[in-house]
Each structure stands twice: as structure tokens, then as C-alpha cells.
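lol so apparently i was supposed to do this last week
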Amino acid sequence: MTAAKLLLDCDPGLDDALAILLAHSDPALELVAVTTVGGNVVLENTTRNALELREHLGFTDVPVAAGAAGPLVREAKNAAEVHGPGGIGDVILPPATLPLDPRNAVDLIIETLRSAPGEIHLVATGPMTNIALAIRQEPRVAEWAASFVIMGGSFTRGNTTPAAEFNIYADPEAAAEVFRAGWQVVMVGLDLTLQALVDDAIKDRMLALGTLGRELVVPLATFWKDPQDPDWGGQAVHDVCAVAYISRPDLFTSVPARVEVETAGEWTAGMTVTDFRSSIPNALVPVKLDVAGFWDYVLGCYARAAS
Ligand code: BDR
Ligand code: CA
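anyway here it is w/ calcium ion bound
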């Protein structure tokens, strides 16, 4: 079986780092490039984290390129209160020695997808700024991607505001352009990702991975606690779900929908308005996760990296 090729645009980020680890450790996936965007923390830090993870995990032949520092039109927002000021919680990795790719992330996305039309899956787990800029510069990106999967949005709730999820809220104008680019957006949103929480039983299975589990996976997967949630069920690993979708779509129950992004609302900016009854869908929305199957799959891949 040939591995599915994957380009990951991300803002590491606790869960982005865990998504990178999954893309690296799943033998059914081939990570072909990592591009970074400012989001959870500033671009300098998301890029440093991606470079350090590349060397620490050992996928040193995969290019890493930096893209947009901030959104298309709005002021930059971050989620440092969730991910820590550096972006990956308490984890400290050895400084990277290998260089950043000299190209801008937008050029790397375009060139990589152009080189193999229909073969490379594009996954975005940060604000959609780089993707929107790539589409503006080369609309055929939407034809060339084998699929386009995002972690972002929701159809019932937000996490940054009552209406909006962080990745969409951070750059609603970019997200709106991306949803209208003529491709199918697989919207792995909060309604899906909040089904897979790192509870004590999952944490124990992560610890059983040994050094990788103790020193990287558990610190990334348990750093954040919501002080306002009395029913705290564990940290979510949102971005991991988006990468998992490429390899294991069978774990997801998905429904077509029309998704439009609110850019004008005073209280609803960044809301992904999802119409499951539309006759002109532009998105496929995973709504239900096989949670046990998901963890068996993810932890099985991590175990390979750990050994
Ligand atoms: C998303 O926002 C970020 O904080 C996470 O990395 C994830 O991509 C969840 O809303
Ligand atoms: Ca992210």
C-alpha cells in the first residue's frame, strides 16, 4: 500500500505538535511538508516549534516553511493562555540546527501541490491565512489538493466566543475565502474534536508509551486545564482529529453541508454557519467519532514512534 501524502499547515500549538507526531508516525501517511502560520502563538514561536519537532522526531528531509504572521485584515489574536507563551506548554526541545526552507509557506504550498496534482492531501490546523493567500495566488490549488481537511469551526458552539472556534475566529476573512474556493472542505470542528478527550485512562495509555509518552505526548496532551469548567473531562486534541481523518475516514461519520463564515457580525464573527439541508454543499462535516477506534489508532501510531 502506498502512503497518502500530506502537507500540514499549522500553528504549533500543543495539539498541532501531537498532529505532527501522528503524521510522522502513521505508516499510512507520508508527511511531505510542514508550513507554519501565526495563531496560537506568534509566527516566530510556531515556526521554532515546528523546526524543533522535525529534528527531535527525525523527519529531517521534510521542508518546513514559515508563512503569514497575522490575519488578512484583522489584528492578530493568540491562544497563549491555552498553549503557554512558547506554544507547546512546558515542553522544552533541543534547539533546531537545520534551516527553515527559504520559500514562503504560500509558495511552498503552491509548488508542492503543483508538483503532484491529485496526490497530496492538504491539512490546515491553524488560522486559514496561508491557505487563503495560496488560493488567491494560484486558484488551481483547490483542484490540485487530493483533499482539504481543516480543524476549525463547529455547527453548535464556539470556544473563543460563544459563536466562534479559534482557528476561524483568528482570521474569518481568510476562512470565508477558503470555504468559497470551489473545493470540498472537510470541516473537523469542535463538535467532533470534543468527543476525544484525554481522560485519565487515555493519559495512562500515553504514559505506557515510555520516554516519548512521558516527555512529549503526556506533557502536550495534559498541559491545559479549563479553570471554569466544573465538568472538566480532559484536554482535547483537536488537530490530531484532522490528520486522523486522512488516514482513517472510516472512524468518522460525516454529513455534507453548506458552510459560510460570518465576517460582519458584531457578536458572531468567525461563526461557521452550517446548513445541513443545503442543495449546494461546499463542505463535508464529520459529526460523530468512533472514540475507542480513534485512540487505538492514534496510540498505536505513537507506539511505533516510541519504539
Ligand atoms: C484550535 O485552536 C487552537 O488553539 C488549537 O491548536 C486548534 O487548532 C482549537 O480551537
Ligand atoms: Ca492549531
